[in-house]
Every structure is written in C-alpha cells, then in structure tokens.
C-alpha cells in the first residue's frame, strides 16, 4: 500500500486531525506527562511547537509558518515577546507529495530571559539513537489513535530507525514489537516540536516534527506508522549563518506579514456578523460572541478563535494569519465573507 504523508497541523486550522503525543496503550498516561520545568526551551506557538535554540531564536517547521500572523505575541516564562521575523529555509517549496527542507527560524523582538536555550545537534550519528519527542494538545494511544485532550506538556521515547540527508525516521512500535518503555510519537499539532538527543553537554535538538506516514493498513496515529522529522544536523550551518546575519540581510529573506490594528466594533456590527456560514468542502463556519469580542469556530470543533475589527468590513485574528472581509448585499446586509490567508481564496456564504 502506498504510504500517505500527513502534515502534523491542528484540526482547528487546516485539517481534520488532532494534536499531541500518542503513547503506548498499556502504560499509564501519567508516565508521559512532563514534570516540573523540564523542557523549558520548548515553546508553544499556539498551533505549532518550537524550541528556543538561542536567546532570541526559535526553530520550528516551515510548513506551519503560513499560519503565523504578523508580530505573533508569545508568553514565555511569564514574559511577553513577539515574533519579529519568520525565516523559512530558502529551498522549502512544498508540494502535495513533498515537504523537504521543512525547517524555519523565528527571531524574537528581544532575548528571552529566565530560560536556558537548547543547542542543535550537529553530528551525523543519529541512527539507532534514542530520542525524546515533546508536545502538547490532544493525546491518544497506539491502539485507538486520538482519544482526548492533554492537560499539559507530554513527552515520549523513540529510536531513530533510518536516516537520509533530510530526514530522521521513527517507527511507532507496539509493545510486542520491541517498543521502548515510554514509546510514542508526536501527532498533528505537534509540528515544529523537537526530537531531543541526550549528549554529555545536555539535550540537543536533533529533529523537528514534520509529517507522518500511514501504517500498512492506511491508518494514522496508531502502531506501525512512521514519523518523519527534519534532520537538524543537515541544516546546522544554515541555522548558524542565519542567526549571524545583519538586520538588513534578514529583512531580505523574512516572510512578510500584515500588522493589523484593532478598532472598536459597535454592537450592531457584531450582531450583523454573527451566524453560520457555508464554506465549500469545509464544515460550517460559525461566528458567535465570546468574551469582549467575537469568535469563529468550525462546526463540531470546540476551540474558538477571537476576531477583531481592524477597518470597515475587515476583521482579523492575532493568533492566525487570517483576515476576514465582510461582503454586503445591496441592502447593506452581511451576505458572505472572504478569507484572506494561508488556505487561499475561500468564500463563506451566510446561511
């Protein structure tokens, strides 16, 4: 059977998968929970994971960068930061079948204090080495797949089964097939998360979670699947060269993102926008009140995303690279929405 590659992105934004560490079915899930402040360099990017590899730099997966808004706000160790620059590997040009060079760097507006960064692994001896995957979100097990949402950060062991120039490969072994004590894999939503190798000088980032190949039965997230992580040692030179570039040089290679400013929306504007919308090939798009603004969500999915008015007939979210244009009919009523963002041109017709 042909292996199907599935990117590890979260259900709420682009696909119908869930996120987080998937573990052995015969082990207590508490054993997979990260204790105390272990892995403090692992950064939750809200829908993506990353690792702080230098005081002002995070490494993550390039395929998640289209989701990132301009100046994304992050809270790290209780302090506020924002992503100043998004820099994917220059040869990353994804197709439906290929996501080679799935690596990107994020430069923060200032160095992170209170957290020690984790260096990258530059050796070429990853084969047969044990690693730790780290992620958060939904969780599951190798027998049932995704089962629910995790309450914090999880980790899991695995062994590097194969390497090539761009990838590290990890099989999800069942207990009867030589599984490690805390065998597991990452899941959709853990994109960009690390595979850590332990060295004499501490943990190093050896891999970056990219995508997964189905098992022989065409299933994902269960025993028998293969995880593909970007092989960081192949990009160590690029990482160092990028971090050494001047601001002017970085501006030439950084992705551009619009920066929207919030405007106050009237009660009538909020009321007009609320409702259900039909989107081709996707679940119903719902806009409803939340907190002090409006939120959107996809029908059947619990998580909602705040949206704010930024100009006449234009709303945006500060968590995802998405702007929503409100299109009205001749009577001035909200007729449909136009999405500008990572999914291309999408219309949502009000029901």
Description of the molecule:
It is a single chain. The protein has helices at about 235-245, 245-255, 265-275, and strands at about 5, 20-25, 40-45, 50-55, 55-60, 75, 80-90, 105-110, 130-140, 145-160, 160-165, 165-170, 185, 195-200, 200-215, 225-230, 275-280, 285-290, 295-300, 305-310, 315, 320-330, 335-340, 345-350. With about 350 residues, the chain is mainly beta. The protein has two domains: about 5-250, Thrombin, subunit H, CATH 2.40.10; about 265-350, Beta Barrel (Lipocalin), CATH 2.40.128. The strands form three sheets. Strands 1, 2, 9, 10, 11, 12, 13, 14, 15 and 16 form a ten-stranded mixed beta sheet that branches. It has an eight-stranded antiparallel β-barrel with strand order 17-18-19-20-21-22-23-24. The chain has a six-stranded antiparallel beta sheet with strand order 3-4-5-8-7-6, with helices on one face. A hairpin with a 3-residue loop joins strand 11 and strand 12 (about 165-170). The relative contact order is 0.17.
């Amino acid at each position: 059977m042909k292996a199907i590659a599935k990117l590890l992105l979260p259900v709420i934004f682009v696909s119908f998968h869930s996120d987080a560490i998937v573990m052995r079915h015969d082990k207590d899930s508490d054993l997979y929970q990260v204790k105390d402040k272990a892995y403090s360099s692992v950064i939750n990017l809200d829908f993506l994971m990353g690792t702080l590899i230098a005081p002002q730099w995070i490494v993550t997966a390039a395929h998640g960068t289209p989701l990132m808004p301009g100046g994304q706000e992050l809270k790290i160790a209780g302090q506020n930061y924002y992503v100043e620059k998004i820099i994917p590997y220059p040869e990353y040009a994804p197709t439906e079948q290929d996501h080679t060079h799935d690596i990107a760097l994020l430069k923060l507006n200032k160095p992170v204090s209170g957290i020690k960064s984790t260096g990258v692994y530059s050796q070429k001896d990853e084969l047969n080495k044990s690693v730790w995957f780290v992620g958060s979100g939904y969780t599951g097990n190798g027998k049932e797949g995704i089962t629910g949402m995790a309450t914090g950060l999880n980790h899991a062991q695995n062994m590097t089964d194969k390497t090539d120039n761009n990838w590290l490969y990890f099989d999800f072994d069942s207990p009867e097939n030589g599984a490690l004590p805390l065998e597991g894999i990452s899941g959709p939503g853990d994109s960009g998360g690390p595979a850590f190798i332990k060295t004499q000088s501490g943990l190093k980032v050896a891999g970056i979670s990219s995508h997964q190949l189905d098992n022989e039965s065409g299933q994902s997230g269960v025993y028998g699947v293969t995880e593909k992580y970007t092989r960081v040692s192949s990009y160590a030179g690029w990482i160092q060269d990028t971090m050494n570039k001047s601001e002017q040089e970085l501006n030439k290679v950084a992705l551009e993102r619009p920066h929207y400013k919030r405007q106050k929306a009237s009660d009538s504007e909020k009321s007009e926008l609320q409702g259900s919308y039909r989107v081709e090939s996707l679940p119903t798009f719902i806009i409803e009140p939340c907190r002090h603004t409006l939120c959107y969500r996809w029908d059947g999915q619990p998580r909602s995303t705040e949206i704010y008015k930024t100009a006449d007939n234009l709303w945006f979210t500060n968590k995802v690279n998405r702007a929503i244009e409100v299109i009205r009919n001749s009577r001035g009523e909200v007729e449909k929405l136009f999405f500008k963002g990572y999914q291309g041109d999408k219309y949502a017709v009000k029901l």
